[in-house]
Design goal:
Layout (H helix, E strand, L loop, with lengths): L5 E5 L3 H13 L3 E5 L2 H11 L3 E4 L8 H9 L6 E5 L4 H9 L4 E4 L4 H19 L6 E4 L2 E4 L4 E4 L2 E3 L3 H12 L4 E3 H9 L7 H15 L9 E4 L3 E4 L3
Parallel strand pairs: 1-2, 1-3, 3-4, 4-5
Antiparallel strand pairs: 6-7, 7-8, 8-9, 10-12, 11-12
Helix pairs in contact: 6-7, 6-8
The chain binds calcium ion.
């Protein structure tokens, strides 16, 4: 098996971290386990992992604070793996720079899929950037010509709709919060005007989805935001 990336698991529940570490090793990854935030920082500086899996409820510090700390010196992909099902916690983790989140209990296959998304993002950043044309099923976007087509027929998007669509595509597979979209697309610094996002998203979906009730591309993450389908 090819040598894959190094993954740091910061999790105080030994049963969970052990289970994740064994599964990761089976899939060819190198896994390091930290049981506290302090140990996590220490192992990070020693091993420079490619991805961090972060539990929010740690014995020595709040996982959100640790996330902020990592973001002061590193853009390493961080996937929050937390038992806390509260929507607000997920949203604040994502707004503080987490790349994704999973709520316990989860299937290992789901975690591996999220890890692959993070790896691909990392390779894109390291490589020559996104492809000039995005193509998936009936949707095609030519970034140079700023042209969006459905089954070869050009559709007209407003500038905001176009920016919304390209922002989603550039972060394909990753969940984007309402606040993130307000910042990226509208340039707002603050605010929780999720209605604006919803209205524009509904219009965009009408233009690119065949069935807006069962979207193929723009998936809703209830209470959090949106995710562009990963395949
Ligand atoms: Ca915990």
């Amino acid at each position: 098996m090819d040598e894959k990336g190094k993954i740091l698991i910061i999790e105080d529940d030994k049963y969970i971290s052990g289970f994740i570490a064994v599964s990761l090793k089976k899939n060819g990854y190198l896994a390091y386990v930290a049981e506290t935030g302090a140990q996590g920082l220490f192992l990070y500086s020693n091993h420079h992992p490619d991805i961090i899996l972060l539990d929010l409820g740690l014995p020595d510090m709040d996982g959100i604070d640790l996330l902020k700390e990592f973001r002061t010196f590193s853009q390493v992909p961080i996937i929050v793996v937390s038992a806390r099902a509260h929507e607000q916690e997920k949203v604040s983790a994502l707004d503080q720079g987490a790349d994704d989140y999973l709520t316990k209990p989860f299937f290992m296959g789901e975690l591996l899929a999220r890890i692959r998304v993070s790896e691909r993002k990392k390779n894109q950043v390291a490589g020559q950037g996104p492809e000039p044309i995005f193509q998936s099923d009936w949707l095609s976007v030519d970034f140079e010509k700023r042209r969006v087509s459905i089954e070869g027929e050009e559709v007209h998007l407003t500038p905001i709709e176009y920016k919304l669509l390209t922002t989603l595509i550039h972060h394909q597979g990753k969940v984007l919060t309402h606040l993130f979209l307000l910042r990226e697309v509208w340039g707002y610094e603050e605010g929780s005007d999720t209605k604006t996002v919803r209205v524009f998203m509904a219009n965009l979906r009408r233009k690119i989805e065949k069935d807006t009730m069962k979207p193929r591309f723009i998936l809703t993450e209830v209470g959090v935001g949106y995710r562009f389908a990963d395949d």
